[in-house]
Amino acid sequence: LAKTKVGLAPGIAFGNQGEGYLRLCFAQPVDALETAMDRLEDYFVSA
After folding, report:
1. DSSP-based three-state secondary structure for 22
2. How many alpha carbons fall within 13 Å on the CB side of residue 37?
3. Total domain count for the chain?
């Protein structure tokens, strides 16, 4: 969150089947979602 300004929740918070996954909220305009995905991609590519 600090680097990308994108909030993620651990999947396990939504039940045991969510372990190993991340949850995103898509209740945003498409342009905001595109920006979020670009930021996450940049973060994971540079990691």
Report:
1. strand
2. 9
3. 1
Residue at 4 is within a domain: no
pTM: 0.69
More confident residue, 2 or 28: 28
- Give, rounded to a whole angstrom, the gap between the first and last alpha carbons of the chain: 14
pLDDT tens digit sequence for 4-42? 888 889 999 999 999 999 998 888 999 999 999 999 999
Boundaries of domain holding 38: 9-46
3 in any annotated domain: no
